[in-house]
Amino acid sequence: MVYGGKDMWFFITMFICNILIPLIMIMGGYFMYKKPPKEINSVVGYRTKMSKKNIDTWMFAHNYCGRLWLKLGTALLIPTVIVQIPFIHSNDNVIGTVTLIVEAVQLVVLIGSIIPVEKALKKTFDENGIRR
């Protein structure tokens, strides 16, 4: 173990990698919630079959997903930082393994966030995108 040397740089690099997903969720959530794409498109935004039915479903999905990502990103950021602290002086293999586990959990949360958004869309709109 080299404190402050090569191992420390690896830890710092992995630490930055681990906080990227929560930070992207927080920033992406803010922009989806506060400044969603004004037009339905196939490039930017929350793009599912249901969200692209009409402008009402589009805006609803961005509002809902944006608020959800703000909450989830913040909720992920705090434990992500705390989980890494005990491994600050561990070897590269341990730090790499912790990084893989942390990022796998983050990706499950990120991808899993589609489920509540789609449920909210189906609860609020019929299959044609008309509000219930």
Structure characterization notes:
The mean pLDDT is 94. α1 runs antiparallel to α2 (55-84) and α2 (55-84) runs antiparallel to α4 (114-124). The radius of gyration is 19 Å and the shape is elongated. It contains four helices and no strands. It has helices spanning 6-34, 55-84, 92-112, 114-124. It has 132 residues and is mainly alpha-helical. The longest helix has 30 residues, at 55-84.
Task: Give a brief outline of the structure.
The chain is an all-alpha fold and about 130 residues long. It has four helices and no strands.
Q: Keyphrases for this structure?
A:
132 residues
Described by strand count, sense and barrel closure, the largest sheet is:
none
Shape, principal axes of CA atoms: elongated
Number of H- or I-type helical stretches: 4
Secondary structure: helix percent = 55-70%
Q: End-to-end distance, in Å?
A: 61 Å
Beta percentage is under 5%
Q: State the secondary-structure class.
A: mainly alpha
Mean pLDDT: 94
Q: Low-confidence parts, pLDDT < 50 over ≥5 residues?
A: none
Question: What is the H/E order?
Answer: HHHH
Based on CA atoms alone, the radius of gyration comes out at 19 Å
Helices, strands, pairings?
Blueprint: H1 6-34, H2 55-84, H3 92-112, H4 114-124
Helix pairs in contact: 1-2, 1-3, 2-3, 2-4
